[in-house]
Design brief:
By secondary structure, this protein is α/β, with parallel strands linked by helices. Helices cover 45% and strands 17% of the residues. The chain has 3 domains: 19-55 and 174-202, no CATH class; 59-165, Alpha-Beta Plaits (2-Layer Sandwich); 207-469, Rossmann fold, CATH 3.40.50. The protein has 16 helices and 12 strands.
Length: 470
């Protein structure tokens, strides 16, 4: 790789700007929000299934009693505190547990007993927890009945009076357990998803803005096209064309900026064939190619646009052209005359002709490098001021390399925060090594800017073309 392709500074650590960092993270999160949500849902469903199938019911019977003592000089409050402190020792000694089991007619206690003192009062809270609701309630009643007779050897004569009784428990606590488990697992899934987005953002070396591009390559910068937001319902399936009446103004002006800078690189030369390519599919190269063709035609130039991406022809959708038109392959094979295959914008005041892609995408990529293709381009050179070739991605397929010998300049489209830097470098390097001059890079889908221009839609382009003719 030659030094003219990349900058060595690309290997140096970037200074961290917390504002930029947070903005990049939020951008990455907007694009990949589905991952944290899916992980939270999946782990939440897993937790629900786990609790539903493996949960062991735990019923809790509870009551509050007041403690009174008949021993002279004993304070009921102090006695209640003594009972709560000594209860574990009495229970584990076997004296109480054996008595309760004997009274209930069982060999072992069905539940776990716990006694606590309401601080500063003579109230005790006694609870029994176990797997069977009726068993734990019966055990609770037995504790209340037999404990005073056991405790008199430790704290003296006492009596229990029931203040509040829960009755036979009806809720095993499954709902509470399930809710807590789902919240825990869903939260863990959400956190894992957010961490994934963070790691993805940190490790995925992409081009996010002009600064990233300038640090990576020496290739000229033609401009940034902002994210295009459709304004009408129902046009989501159509392409993005600057001929739309409600065209997004900052997008329109960004296209004009790219066209103007591209014109400067063409000025004073006989370079008129421009190939528009990208690193990988999905970066919007076809949209850029189509709108550049319209923008050049709006300046009164004779423009011909060829859809040379025969695997994935897109210009008919980008330019919102209705009807069936023979594709490039049929023209090169001689099945159809060029004049019968071209779509004209003459009725709109533009000297723009489009040779669209095939109705059925082709795998016969060899036609791009054929003698017929060379002759077609040579013939079109005599008929047009600007010829734009919408070519396949250069970093993944050999298709674009077949078009290099027919092109004078290349425009390289990079979708912001999309393709990895090594892939971009590979695509640009291959173009350089193939001998085509790269006119510059266009960043697509960048930050939204307000260029401050008024309405400048189709009517303005038409007026420009008419003024040129005059």
């Amino acid at each position: 790789m030659s030094n003219s392709t990349y900058r060595s500074s690309d290997t140096t650590p970037d200074k961290i700007d917390i504002t930029v960092f947070l903005d990049d993270y939020l951008t990455a999160l907007r694009k990949r929000w589905i991952i944290p949500v899916l992980l939270a849902l999946i782990l939440g469903l897993f937790s629900w299934f786990r609790v539903s199938t493996s949960y062991t019911p735990q019923y809790k019977a509870e009551c509050t009693v007041s403690v009174s003592t008949s021993t002279p000089g004993n304070d009921s409050k102090l006695t209640a505190g003594q009972i709560s402190r000594t209860f574990p020792a009495i229970l584990t000694s076997g004296i109480l547990s054996d008595r309760i089991a004997e009274d209930m007619g069982v060999s072992r206690l069905p539940g776990t007993i716990k006694v606590t003192n309401v601080s500063g009062t003579n109230f005790l809270t006694i609870s029994v927890t176990g797997k069977n609701a009726l068993d734990v309630y019966n055990e609770l009643q037995t504790v209340i009945r037999v404990y005073p007779s056991i405790a008199r050897y430790v704290v003296g004569e006492t009596q229990f009076e029931i203040i509040e009784d829960s009755g036979v428990p009806e809720d095993s606590g499954k709902a509470v357990s399930m809710r807590g488990s789902i919240l825990k697992y869903s939260g863990a899934g959400l956190a894992a998803g957010l961490l994934y987005v963070f790691l993805f953002m940190v490790t995925k070396r992409t081009v996010r803005n002009h600064k990233d591009l300038s640090e990576m390559v020496n290739t000229p910068y033609l401009g940034t096209l902002p994210v295009y937001r459709k304004k009408k319902r129902g046009d989501g399936d159509s392409g993005i064309s600057i001929l739309e009446e409600n065209v997004q103004q900052d997008y329109l002006e960004a296209v004009r900026t790219v066209r103007t800078r591209l014109e400067r690189r063409m000025k004073g030369t006989d370079r008129k064939v421009i190939m528009v390519t990208s690193s990988i599919p999905g970066e919007g190269k076809s949209t850029v190619a189509g709108n550049l063709a319209i923008s050049f035609a709006g300046q009164g130039k004779k423009v011909i646009l060829l859809d040379c991406d025969i695997r994935n022809p897109s210009q008919q959708e980008v330019l919102n052209i209705k009807g069936d038109y023979p594709g490039l392959e049929k023209v090169l094979s001689g099945e159809v005359k060029l004049s019968d295959a071209l779509y004209s914008y003459e009725d709109r005041g533009f000297d723009l002709l489009c040779l669209l892609g095939a109705q059925d995408p082709s795998e016969h990529i060899e036609i791009l490098g054929s003698e017929q293709m060379r002759k077609l381009i040579a013939m079109l050179r005599e008929k047009a001021d600007v010829i734009i070739l919408d070519t396949p991605p250069s970093a993944m397929l050999a298709d674009a390399m077949l078009m290099v010998k027919n092109a004078d300049l290349a425009v390289y489209v990079i979708m912001c925060d999309y393709a990895r830097r090594p892939v971009i470098l590979r695509g640009i390097t291959e173009l350089n090594e193939a001998g085509v001059k790269i006119a510059g890079c266009v960043l697509n889908g960048g930050k939204h800017h307000n260029y401050g221009y008024g309405s400048y839609g189709y009517t303005s382009y038409q007026k420009e073309a008419e003024n040129k003719e005059e």
